[in-house]
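User: New here, please read:
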Amino acid sequence: MWLCTFLFALFGCLSESAFFGPRAWILPRKGPHFDRPGDVIIGGSFCIFRFSDGTLSNFTAPPTGLQASSVSEWGYRVMQSFVFAIEEINKSAELLSNLTLGFSIRNSGDSVHGALYEMMGFLTGQDEPIPNYTCQYGSAQAALVGDTRSSLSVSMARLLGLYKFPQISYSSSLPSLSDKIQFPSFLRTLPSDLTSCHAVTQLIIHFQWSWVIILSQDDDFGEQASSLATQQLSAAGVCIEFHLHVPSQESLGKIEETVQKMQKCTARVVLVFLNNSNFQLILSGLLAASVSGQVWVSNGILHIAMALSIPGISQVLQGTLGLLYDCSRAIGFPDFLAHLRPSQTPEDMFIKKFWESTFDCTWPYQNSTVTEGVQVCSGNESLKNKPHSFPEVSKIDDAYTAVYSIAHALHDMIASAHQDGIDTNPQDFHHWQLLHALKKVHFKTLDGTKIMFDVNGDLVTKFDILQGQKTPTGVFHWVHVGMIDPQVSSGNKMMVQLKEDLQVPTSICSESCLPGFSQVPRLGAPHCCFDCSPCPEGQFADQRDMKRCLLCPKEQYSSHTRDHCLPRTEIFLAFEEPLGFILTLMAILLAGLALLVLGVFLKHRDIPVVRANNRTLSYFLLISLSLCSLCSLLFLGRPTVTTCLLRQTTFAVVFTVAVSSVLAKTLTVVLAFRVTKPGSRIQVCLSPGASTSVILIASLIQAVLCGVWLATSPPFPERDMISEPRHIVIQCQEGSGATFFCVLGFLGFLAGGTFSVAFLARALPDVFNETKFLTFSMLLFCSVWTAFLPLYHSARGKSTVAVEIFSILASTAGLLGGIFIPKCYIILLKPEKNTPAWLRQGHCAHQDRQFSMLHRR
């Protein structure tokens, strides 16, 4: 409620100060005008006397004279810039040197009715305008300059377009006026609102503001401009926290609602498309609520400059950005205005009312007495000490430029006719001819500004970026900080140039995601509001605010910071690395140990210990164990086609020989103790050929399986990209899984059978009987390979190779140690047990134990 009361009081102040001069007067039926003769006449429509409401006809009686309610001081100054331009051209020796320009200035009264009435009076030359009829002879009418508001210009342009009569506005910026189908003869010395709106949108995009507020009024300009801004900002990824539509007519309730919403907003950038009064009311409400810190961005600075009249408002407007289009400057106009006197221009019907309003004085009219205490106008007052305010500058310059555009079009049209050899009267031309010349006009003004129109009749211009700043003394002023050139663009992006030291705040919903993180949208929030999530292994984000992480190429992996990819190194279990070296050393030592044991057995081949355990099978077993140790070396080094073919097949065949040798030894021991009579059939199985046959048959079966494997789908080297994220594992792919498991299955079946037979024979005579050692060694062998399976499948990369090599060496060591180390101990350290007597003693002791057991039964 307090805010509404405050705004109501402020609105009353603003309304009273909008125009000067509270006095009203009735204008004659023929409105006041300011005419000056010339060879060619240029019309001018300006808001000088503002008409009061309720002066339109009620259509039941002829309309009465219009009632003027106030004088627009800035409107009169704009009109004088029009006069100044014509006088400057008439004095020029280069532009229209043989032609004198005249003018006919009319008052539109800031009303559509007044604008159309005075325009028809100018076109027809009649006090009572009659459409499609003119009583005006002599000087040709060239064009019409005007009007101020777009609603007035639209009404005038619809009618003037029927006659192709050129019209140049100095203040109307409605986008629809660029439509050459509806308004074929309309041009303007300022850009369209859509062009300036597009420029200010590009400014927001350039500053990377992704979280903004839009305030627009609910009229044609506000709807079109905000719609275009929303479309372009959304396409650029900018989010709008909220978009408020403010009624064109002041609504204190809506203003209060807007202020309350802006108190809660988090966006720091506010894009405004508002009229002056609404903008000032909102600013005043924010000032009263002590809300500051927002950056106001506008496609113009007129309403921002006018808002500076509010005391203390610079606190709210600090850092505001606005655009000012680049236009010609009426350099000598301030001096011209300073020397203006009513006595010098008696034909000017507006000057006396302007004088009264500006200097707060009264002219001594005939048959009237001057009230005591009222200042009398002398006519010698000077406007030098009454400089025009900032909002008038652009309109003054644009009206000045409009006159020069018409003059240059006339000059070009006449010069073109002379070049074509046509000697015509400069006053004899068609309006469409001048309109054609106007559209093609291209010249430089006295201050060096280039003037030309685009295909829509809008001024081709650049935009200066101005920022509102406070000096150390607290004075608010505008600082030029950059430029936007709509003509230099790439796609839909305009060229934006800014000063290097320009500092602007950020306006974002969420902090930027650093490289290595991706955006995760927040549920129910705009896409500009997000959380940052680190990229997973194997993915990267090398830029800020990436929507998703990218996959690294197959031969690369993501860095620790996940902001780039690094090349993956190829790895394999090499001989040179510590683990490879240790395994190589172990394999060589184990193979050497097996050969050393073989040497011991060969040296002592005739002693009972060696002879009692089938020395031929022992030789086979020791040689195969030595080869088992050495075959593990095939698993080291970089895999090649050859090594991949030999790895598993050599391992399978050699281990088959070793296990089948153990099986043959076990069977030999078991059968030896079952022979009770000479010539028994079992005795045939104890021959050396029978034991060798077991080895050959088992090895042949394994060789056939390996041959089928190699023939159908042999192993091959491959690059494993999955096992280790940072490395490429060079390994052997086993090819056909079925045949590979058949090979391993046969080896497992053979080992299981050998262990079973050895386990059953463990209780035989134990002097030189090795069945218990065979049982123990096969237990170690089976335990190693049973543990191997889960370890092998859980290992990754080159660890799988290390596990397999270790299993080969461990199982080889188990067989070698379990079977042959006890015998070497007897041969080398206990020779007294290595005699036939000891053997017979052990056999007799075994028989005694059996007899004792039978006797007890």
Q: What stands out?
A: The chain is about 45% helix and 15% strand. The first strand starts at residue 25 and ends at 26. The chain has four domains: 31-190+329-365+376-452, 193-326+462-498, 517-567, 578-856. The two ends are 118 Å apart (CA to CA).
